[in-house]
Amino acid sequence: MLTIHGEKHGKLCNGVTRRDFLTLGALGAAGLALPDLLQLQAQVSAPTTAKSVIMVYQPVD
User: What is the Cα–Cα distance from 56 to 20, expressed in whole angstroms?
Assistant: First the structure.
């Protein structure tokens, strides 16, 4: 759970702990990478169209 205002040791000047700062940074990085990840996943899982093949054999004399 993310707690920005609390009574913890190791606070920065504005009351945010180092752990909270790293958590917020990781959430921001994940938020920036998520659209690209979802777009790549949609491209990979796109259904392909079925293709039909008609094979014709001619007898050799």
Answer: 69
Global model pTM greater than 0.70: no
Provide the 8-state DSSP code for 45: T
Annotate 10-26 with DSSP letters as a single string.
SB-TTS-BHHHHHHHHH
**CB distance 9 to 27 below 8 Å:** no
Per-residue pLDDT tens over the stretch 8-59: 555 556 677 788 878 888 888 888 888 888 888 877 766 778 888 888 888 8
For tokens 């998520």, what's the residue? 34
Taking the CB of residue 23, how many other CB atoms lie within 10 A of it? 16
For residue 4, which amino acid is it?
I
Amino acid letter, 55 = M
